[in-house]
Amino acid sequence: MSKKFGGIELGENFGGYEIVNASANSLPQDAASAVSAANSNPLLGATYNPIWYVGKQLVNGTNHLFIAEDIRSTKNKDKSIVGLVINVPPGEGAIKGEGAKIERIIESEELSPEVQAAFTAAEKSIIGASYKPVMYIGKQIVRGENHYIVCETKGIYPGAQPQATVFIVNIFEGKPSVVGIVPIKPDKKDAPTLFGYAFTW
Q1: Predicted local confidence at residue 201, as pLDDT
Q2: What pLDDT score does 6 carry?
Q3: Rounded CA gap, 10 and 12, in Å?
Q4: Segments of the chain with pLDDT less than 70
Q5: Residues 97, 90: contact at Cβ < 8 Å?
Q6: Distance CA 186, CA 56 (A)
Q7: What is the pLDDT of residues 30-80, one digit of tens each?
Q8: Cα dist. 183→75, 138, 176, 188 in Å?
Q9: Which pairing describes strands 129-142 and 62-72: parallel, antiparallel, or unpaired?
């Protein structure tokens, strides 16, 4: 059964997740503690800075789902944008993130053939940046279908740093077009509303 959220039919990644909708500077205590505890593992080889807190899922404790910066422990501190799932076991220490561990890192999303073809065609119409799908949010039936995809976006110039964006592609009568590309900003207190549609994180 598909889950509806603000007019969007959510993709499979959101199945079972309670949408929390919080920016990085307004995380609930349990989510902030989970990130801090998971980052304290010296064997990670990376640090994960949340950009947006998508939601949580109760499964053998709590899974917290974030869009995050993956900052590698390298000389250049290489960065990428990922989906991040952190599990915190049940118990009295859950609010403090005790036992938190990284359950999954989503580096790229395999889109359906139709959406991938539309995304590829739409991306070719944009110059100056590259877009890598990280997480498929879902679709909205409008004039055709709008598909919402979280991407790692990088400018095509030396030293460009990746940022998280929502790439919105419309498919109408088999023809793709870009509806918009919206940055996900960690310091934004309120969830973004995209182009008048009732879609919020």
Answers
A1: 31
A2: 44
A3: 7
A4: 1-17, 19, 21, 188-201
A5: no
A6: 18
A7: 999 999 999 988 777 889 999 988 888 888 899 998 999 999 877 777 899
A8: 27, 17, 21, 10
A9: unpaired
Q: Put residue 97 in one of left, alpha, beta given phi > 0 → left and psi -120 to 50 → alpha.
A: left
Cα-trace Rg, the chain: 17
Backbone angles phi, psi at 38, to 5 degrees: -65, -40
CA–CA distance, 86 with 167 (Å, rounded to integer)? 25
SS (H, E, C) the chain: CCCEECCEEECHHHCCCEEEEEEHHHCCHHHHHHHHHHHCCCCCCEEEEEEEEEEEEECCCEEEEEEEEEEECCCCCCEEEEEEEEEECCCCCHHHCCCCEEEEEECCCCCCHHHHHHHHHHHHCCCCEEEEEEEEEEEEEECEEEEEEEEEEEECCCCCCCEEEEEEEEEECCEEEEEEEEECCCCCCCCCCCCCCCCCC
pLDDT on residue 1: 33
Specify the pTM.
Answer: 0.81
> Model confidence over 26-41: pLDDT tens digits?
888 999 999 999 998 8
